[in-house]
Amino acid sequence: MKKKIAILGSTGSIGKCLIDIIKKDKKNFEIILLSAEENYKDLLKQAKLFKVKNLIITKKKSFNKIKKDNYSKKIKIFNNFDNLEKVFKKKIDYTMSSISGIQGLKPTIEIVKYTKKIAIANKESIICGWDLIEKQLEKYKTKFIPVDSEHFSIWYALNNTDKNLIDKIYLTASGGPFLDKSSKKLKRINIKQATNHPNWKMGKKISIDSATMINKVFEVIEAKKIFKIPYKRLSIIVHPKSYVHAIIKFKNGMTKIIVHDTSMKIPIFNSLYSSKKILKTKDLDFSVLNNLDFRNVNFQKFPLVKILKILPEKTSLFETILVSINDKFVELFLNNKIKFTDISTKMNNMLNLYSLKKYKRVRPKNIEEIIKMNSKIKKDIDFLVSK
Question: Which of 279, 269, 278, 282 is nearest to 17 (CA)?
Fold first, then answer.
């Protein structure tokens, strides 16, 4: 019997990687739903290749364009995620949620009830709304797998392990393109330099997040929420080769180190298939293993990592504020409105405002509160920049 699946964000890098995996095993899969924000051309190609009968495309302009294609007359195309009950008559086997940004939160929460397993590759959903997602997972008995390479590695290493035995978890950071660049030279960094990641092919936004290392702050927050580990037992260690993805030290003296190639195909493949399915990969690279080159984080060069010291242990709207501020300042940098170093300086200044720090004590009750806060922060920054 074919495995029924859905891919939210199918035209992004994660979605395309999953599509490539399934393409080689088409006879065993039926794609029930694909979604994209605006890339209707790639979405149509994917739909025709797999004979997909349900599409969601959220940008109105792209929605109007895709409706003109002859193939669109044979299928259902929606402009939002409000009608999932029309798409799914019963639970499907697997969903990949890889919509980037906070706009991925609502679709992620909404689709949980319709799937037996959900793989989430959306940082913002987990950081801002994990409590809401977890309630849905428990209510509908849906299995969850994190797809980020670090979190998948931790999840894989902790399989059937008592979490009380964990002494420390280390998440590795590549250090991005500026690891060995002096702090003084960072003031003259341009967009091309900042998006030129040495190990991974990523979109502009995540590449900038890697260059400032805020992506690791986000990943620590995710790990804390997913695995219910306090911040004091989570740490970042710089590993330029990106070969080791997580290190877990246990209280019994044992340590697990998870290693795999710098390819998202590995966690995506393993989230889709059972452990019996074989993925052909390269042999272990002992030249890298013989020189792992672990380093402590340079807080002068990566000041955003210090944000971890001011985060509340309990879930709050402050995490949404953090994500929203970063999104906006990265957007301003990519639009040549601010310098690269301004991202860190301006973020730290804003996060120390009393008017925002008070939200450390406010727990989000629903999706609407998170979305409203995200919108408010971005409008506030637009107002400040325009003055």
Answer: 269
- Residue 187: CB partners within 8 Å, gap ≥ 6? 339, 340, 341
Q: Which residues contact 369 (CB under 8 A, 6 or more apart)?
A: 317
Write down the residue that tokens 């004590």 correspond to.
361
| Residue with the two structure tokens 């994190």 | 146
pTM above 0.85, yes or no: yes
What 3-state class would DSSP assign to 8?
Answer: strand
Q: How does residue 384 score in pLDDT terms, banded at 50, 70 and 90?
A: confident
For every residue of 113-140, which 3-state class applies, written as one string? HHECEEEECCHHHHHHHHHHHHHHHHHC
Domains and CATH numbers, the chain: 3-147 (3.40.50.720), 148-311 (no CATH), 312-387 (1.10.1740)
Residue pLDDT, tens place only, 300-334: 999 999 999 999 999 999 999 999 999 999 999 99
* Opening angle at CA 200, ends 210 and 347, nearest 5: 10
CA atoms within 13 A on the CB side of 351: 28
